[in-house]
Design brief:
This protein is of the alpha/beta class. It has 4 domains: about 200 residues, Rossmann fold (3-Layer(aba) Sandwich); about 120 residues, ANL, N-terminal domain (Rossmann fold), CATH 3.40.50; about 80 residues, 2-Layer Sandwich (GMP Synthetase, Chain A, domain 3); about 120 residues, Thiol Ester Dehydrase, Chain A. It is built from 15 helices and 29 strands. The strands form 7 sheets. A 6-stranded mixed β-sheet has the order 8-10-11-12-13-14, with helices on both faces. It has a 6-stranded antiparallel β-sheet with strand order 24-25-27-28-29-26, with helices on one face. A hairpin with a 2-residue loop joins β1 and β2. α1 packs across α6.
Length: about 575
């Protein structure tokens, strides 16, 4: 059906009694139950003045009910990637209220109880400005972008027209990405609900969990490069391969080798989607070792063109108007009417009066057998601006770092770049990471990289903390993974020959992450129930679970891994 999204609210309640909207854990949720929950939210929001409301809910089905209910009540929803204090502060001046898991000082609307009958759901107007999303922040500060319903409806329609027949109607949708971003919203919530495909309410965070869920029923996986390039080899993938019908990846480029490995591991080549918060979906491709073509095919309702300098522009119903939108991407047309991307023009920076391509320098670093991943940014925090390099080392690079030290490795990589830029503009600050920091959308943001420069001063020489990867966060809890660098400074002397991570470092990391996520009092008072059950060795990968109780000024933490719990405790702070 054309414009299925505009009819979704009215359509949900009219579906057969046994029709499934999805699962919450092992509990099935019917379309009728979701429609009732939508009406509950509609009545609750209709009682509140104001047009703009920020929404943050981790459960995808409850999120869908709140979103559809808000639209039925005529409210515009602002999506927030998280509920951190900085995000809430930025939203306060833009919205009339908050919905969901925001801190108490935002006065979020409480989840409504079962309500009386609401007006019959109506077909919505495509011109309704229903959503405001934010750019990812991977190239700078996030920007707010308004979306009309017609823009999102056109994306849902083209996705179903292109891929729906191969999926069938009973395919369950699993995701490793959040619906709080436009990609996850479309692929995990709006498209499947419009097409009648059931949705798993929770995100699958761990490979073992993901493999087990995929093996249960015919499934579609919505993921990102950050997850797909780190899939381990598990026995469980064999059972999952028999049920998996498709894999989608977006949010950034999927490295070629990762695309090949994903196809071999999962038995399906990922459908990579090229687009952005502003443009919506632009094009797609599938790559495997047997078909390694890097060219992109535009979606059938998307037009594209190149100017004389190879700059890429698009026009489509996914955009705010019918004009051509000039992007910061460069591209080259192929003989068969497709295109290949050639990097971003906005990653040209000027330093010491010289123009430098960050893409070209990153490509030169990645070409080295010492380097697995590399990102560069212009650091202008000091009196003299310079380039900062963030590098994930390949095994050969880790061996060289251990044998020769950081300064020698810095010189080796600067020498490698000498053929790409003059010495005066080569990176002066280097960070060697266990992995790139990524957020819940699988993005490595400019802000996250800049924070690493602040957290680890240049003179330290060696890492003093891991690279954090956020899994989930709310106003009262956070879940993160961390990999402990083998050359962490704090292993020195603790103990010679058998290094282990000091307990005081574990405590300090937990408090520092707590201060990042929660508005905690400045004065430490005590630590209670502190236990160290298992040692943490160099290179270990763990999960840190944090829970903040504002009423008790208490931060509870746990370090966990596949072998069990490593440490736990409760940190108490003085109340002003």
């Amino acid at each position: 059906m054309r414009d299925a999204l505009l009819h979704l609210a009215a359509d949900l309640g009219a579906r057969p009694a046994g029709a499934l909207a999805g699962w919450r854990g092992t509990q099935a949720v019917s379309c009728a139950a979701l429609a009732q929950r939508m009406r509950d939210w509609q009545l609750a929001l209709a009682a509140h003045a104001g047009r703009n409301f920020a929404l943050y809910l981790e459960d995808s089905l409850e999120f869908a009910a709140a979103l559809l209910g808000a639209w039925q009540a005529g409210k515009t929803i602002w999506l927030s990637a998280d509920a951190l204090p900085a995000s809430c502060g930025a939203l306060r001046a833009r919205v009339d209220g908050f919905i969901g898991l925001f801190p108490a000082d935002c006065a979020p609307l409480a989840a409504p109880a079962a309500a009386a009958d609401a007006p019959a759901p109506r077909v919505l107007d495509g011109a309704f400005e229903a959503l405001v999303v934010h750019t990812s922040g991977s190239t700078g500060a996030p920007q707010a972008i308004a979306k009309r319903l017609s823009q999102m409806a056109s994306e849902v329609d083209v996705l179903e027209a292109m891929f729906g027949a191969s999926l069938g109607g009973d395919t369950a949708v699993l995701a490793t990405v959040s619906h709080q971003h436009i990609y996850g919203l479309l692929f995990k919530v709006l498209w499947p609900l419009c097409a009648g495909r059931p949705v798993l309410a929770d995100s699958a965070l761990y490979p073992e969990e993901l493999a087990a869920l995929l093996a249960q029923r015919p499934s579609l996986l919505v993921s990102s490069p950050a997850h797909l390039k780190r899939l381990p080899e598990l026995a469980g993938w064999q059972a999952a391969r028999g049920q998996l019908r498709a894999v989608f990846s977006s949010g950034g480029p999927l490295p070629e080798e990762a695309a090949f490995a994903c196809a071999e591991l999962l038995g399906k080549a990922a459908v990579e989607v090229y687009g952005s918060s502003e443009t919506g979906g632009v094009a797609w491709r599938q790559r495997s070792r047997a078909a390694a073509d890097a060219a992109w095919t535009a979606f059938p309702n998307v037009q594209w063109r190149l100017d004389d300098e190879g700059m890429f522009a698009v026009r489509s119903p996914h955009l705010a108007d019918d004009h051509w939108l000039q992007l910061a991407d460069r591209a080259e047309a192929t003989a068969d009417g497709r295109f290949e991307l050639r990097g971003r023009a906005d990653r040209i920076v000027k330093l010491e009066e010289k123009r430098i391509s960050l893409d070209a320098l990153e490509a030169a670093l990645r070409a080295s057998p010492l380097v697995a991943e590399a990102r560069l940014l212009l650091d202008d925090s000091a009196a003299r601006a310079c380039l900062a390099a963030f590098v994930v080392l390949a095994p050969q690079g880790r061996e060289q770092l251990a044998a020769q030290g950081k300064l020698a490795l810095n010189r080796a990589l600067r020498t490698l770049l000498a053929g790409s830029a003059e010495a005066v503009v080569l990176p002066r600050r280097w960070r060697y990471l266990a992995q790139m920091p990524v957020n819940t959308q699988g993005k490595t943001t400019h802000a996250a990289l800049a924070a690493l420069l602040a957290d680890a001063p240049a003179e330290a020489g060696r890492p003093v903390e891991p690279v954090w990867r956020e899994l989930e966060c709310s106003a009262t809890s956070a879940s993160l993974t961390l990999t402990v660098p083998p050359d962490l400074l704090y292993f020195d002397g603790h103990f010679p020959g058998s290094p282990i991570l000091p307990g005081v470092v574990q405590l300090d990391w937990a408090i520092a992450r707590g201060r990042h996520y929660f508005d905690m009092p400045p004065v430490f008072r005590d630590v209670a129930m502190l236990k160290f059950q298992q040692i943490i060795a160099p290179g270990a990968t763990l999960q840190l679970e944090l829970a903040w109780d504002a009423g008790k000024s208490s931060l509870q933490f746990k370090y966990l891994s596949d072998t069990g719990q490593h440490a736990s405790g409760r940190v108490l702070f003085a109340v002003a």
